[in-house]
Structures are given as structure tokens and as C-alpha cells.
Write a structure and sequence with these properties.
Elements (H helix, E strand, L loop, with lengths): L7 E10 L2 E11 L4 E5 L6 H8 L7 E6 L2 E3 L4 H6 L2 E4 L11 H5 L14 H14 L15 H14 L4 E5 L7 H16 L3 E5 L3 H7 L2 E6 L2 E7 L5 H9 L17 E10 L3 E9 L3 E5 L6 H9 L6 E6 L2 E2 L5 H7 L1 E4 L3 H5 L6 H5 L8 E2 L2 E2 L1 H15 L15 H13 L5 E5 L7 H16 L3 E5 L3 H7 L2 E6 L2 E7 L5 H9 L7
Parallel strand pairs: 3-8, 3-9, 6-7, 7-8, 13-20, 13-21, 16-19, 19-20
Antiparallel strand pairs: 1-2, 1-4, 4-5, 9-10, 11-12, 11-14, 14-15, 17-18, 21-22
Helix pairs in contact: 13-14, 14-15
Amino acid sequence: MPADQPLLRMEGIGKSFPGVRALDDVLFEIRPGEVHALMGENGAGKSTLMKILAGAYSADSGQIVLDGSPVTIAGPQRAAELGINIIYQEFNLVPQLSIAENIYLGREPRKGLGFLDQEKMRREAQAVMDSLGAKLDVRTPVGKLPVAMQQMVEIAKATSRKSRIIVMDEPSATLTDHELENLYRLIQQLRSEGVAIVYISHRMDEVFAISDRITVLRDGKTVGTKLRGEATPEELIRMMVGRSLDENFPKVAAAPGDVVLEVRNLVRAGILHDISFSVRAGEVVALAGLVGSGRTEIARCVFGADHFDSGQVLLQGKPLVAHGPASAIKAGIGLVTEDRKAQGLVLGMGVRENATLAALPKFAKAGFVQSGPEKKKASEYVASMGVRSPSLEQRVKNLSGGNQQKVVLSKWLMTDSKLLILDEPTRGIDVGAKVEIYQLINRLTADGIGILMISSELPEVLGMADRILVMREGHLVGELSRAEATQEKIGVLAVGVPVRES
């Protein structure tokens, strides 16, 4: 097949769920050996479209054409038979099984009398992993691997099936820069072998680094497709959100008030070393540094989720005693965790239940939750946060990432938090929703709430923080005001050597 001819074409694709038109006459195509980026705000329809391609959903209308002929993809098994595989954000792996067992799960090689051929499975799995440049023993349980290596196992599963098309849904969300370079190398290797890659990402730098073409969806419709060399970040943003985002970081400085949080000489053996800092009411203080520098560990110690060996945590001048999450919440500390799906939300519960989860005692009478007051308060906070949901009873797992994050914020504001710890507050959130989260941060600081923010995105740190504390190897190595902070200065402190500004 000529390289400029579509390997696959999805045309006129429509899909509805109760109360929601998820896809409307969508057109998407991909060529052999192409990296085709698929972009759009959360809820634009990207994942729904790819689930139709992978056989997880069936389309209400339209057709899928593969190699010039219409095909019906009745389920994931049929998609795999056609050479189509998807690597979801949440990996589809069994932690207790080995790498080899995960790669061949459901299609294990057999020998006489139907017995499992362990030796052949390990040999072939090792060959696949070696071909990807992964130096791993395939007998290792997947649960013992770091996230980047688990992703490698997912890719090995796809390549072992002789995939012609691999969909990668937000593959870089939890990767370090070094791991991201390895992913890029692997994608180029697959590309050179003629494998087509659909790459879903919110990160502009990634899209412009590796894609050949970029298709944008908005509100379930195809807005357009651009060659990478013909597109600009500003144009893609306009296509995604339907408007120009002239100010990506709409920071509104609030006059800082009294000290809300004070951390004195915090020590956690081998992890945190004599950490002292403060956060004032109406102030955003950012913790910057490399992954593993101790930023999240500070947040967990302040919140009482992890113990510390010595030091003090004071809220509004009062030491937190018998320190743990319950006492921290009662004192007025809220923690928006790095992983909202695993730690911040109960995905199977509704918007109302999640929004009121941390404040249930407010609605309890004689040990029973009063549903009327609970629903009224949840409705007020959900509306004030701008949560877009068909109803208060909608399961949060069905909301976009930005709306899920707003529900988490609602949960902590309902506890009358005086200090909010935001750990990677915009991870996995599209550019339009990011601006909404930043505007919410402005509202919170205007109301006198202190914000301790952890972010791996330096533009976000520079754009939203009033002060920046830089961590390196468990040490607080510097403090920069908003006026003096630059990407280079933060980089010098974070790694100990000069970092060129981009």
C-alpha cells in the first residue's frame, strides 16, 4: 500500500450515550508508518473514538475502512485479529503475573495435551522485550516494575500480536524525561517498521516532537487535520477550545495575609532533611524540583498521610498534635492528590457522594446522612466550581479529567479548608480545562485560602506561584520570588548545574 494512502479510515462515526452525543460525523484516518496525534479537550470524544476502533464500543453510525474494505469490529478480539491494539492510560496488566504471562495472556502457547508451554512463552516474550531494547527478565512479576517498564510490557503485548495500528492514550502522563526519550525512540522504531501510531496527548511539546499529522476533535466533531509543519500551538489551541487563549496562566496576585501553614525543621529519615517554610493566606507557594526530590513527601507529611521523625507542622500558629489525615482535615488542610483517580475520588460513586465525602459529619444526624441538606450543599459547590455533569448522580468515572479535578476541589472546600495542597493539579487535563483550574486557584486565593502547589511543569510554576521553593534530594535548596524566578534559576537549583531555558 502506498505510504500516502490511508491504512485505516473512520468516516461518519456517530455515538450517543444517555443524554450525551459523544461523537457526531467524525472523520479520522491514518497511514502506514505514520504517527498521527489526536488532540482535543477532555470530553471531546478522543477516547470514545478509539474505543470504537478497538472494539470496546460499537458505533451508532458510520463505517471503518481497513485496507480499502469496510470492516466490522465486534470486539477487542476482532480488533486484535485485524492488527489494531490500544494501550490505555490505565494499563491492562495483571500485577501478580510475570512479564511473559502478561504478554501472552489469553493466547498462551501450548504443547501436547494442551499443556502450557512455559519455555516457549518465556523465550518468545524475551525476544519481544529484547527487540524493544528492554533489559528485563520476563519472569519478573509486572507489579514489581516501575510505571515506565509496565508501559513497555503493554507495548510488547501489542507488538507481539503483529500490530499494524497501535493507539497510545496519554502514554507520557507519568514518565520522567529520560523515560520519555526512550518512548520516543521506541515509537520511531515501530514507525520505521511500518506500524501506524495514534498518539493521544495534551502536551504540545510531545505532539510537535513526534507526530506527522495532527487531528483535533471538539465537542465530538472533527475540527480538522494539520501537517505538523503547517500547525502552530496557538492554532491548535484555537481549534481545541474554539477561542484564543491569549493568557495561558491568568494569575491574579492577592495580597498575602497571615501565615496559614508553617513547617519547622521537618525531618523524615533518608527522605526529608530539615525542611522549613511557610504559606500565607491568599498566597500560592510552589514546590519545584525533579521527580523524587521530596516534593510529594512534604505534602504527605504535612497532611499526616506519612509520619515524620522530627519537626513541627503548624496551622494558623497551632501545632497539629496526634498528626494524621483526620486531624489535618479537622484543622483545615485539604490534599488534592497527584493521582486523583486512585486517591482523590471513588470512581464508582456519583458527583454528589464524592463532593461531600470529606464533609459527611456536617450532614449527619443521629448517625444518618440527611440527604436533603447534603444534596443542596453539593449542588451549590458543584455549580460554583463549574463542574459540567448531566446530574449530581453521574458517576465521576464518566467525567472528563478537568471536571473530576473540580469535584476533588469541591470536596475539600466543603470542609472549610484554610490550606489546600495541590499535587500536580493539572496533570492529564487539557489546555482549556487548565485555564479553568488556574482561575479557580485565583478565586481561592482571593478568598484567603493558602495554596501549596506541587508541579513538574515549570511554565505552570512560573505562571501561577507567588513564591517558589526548590527541592533537591530531600533538601530545600532555594527560594525564589515570582519576580526573580526563571526557568534557568529553578533548573540550576533543582539539578545543581545550569539548565538552558527553552
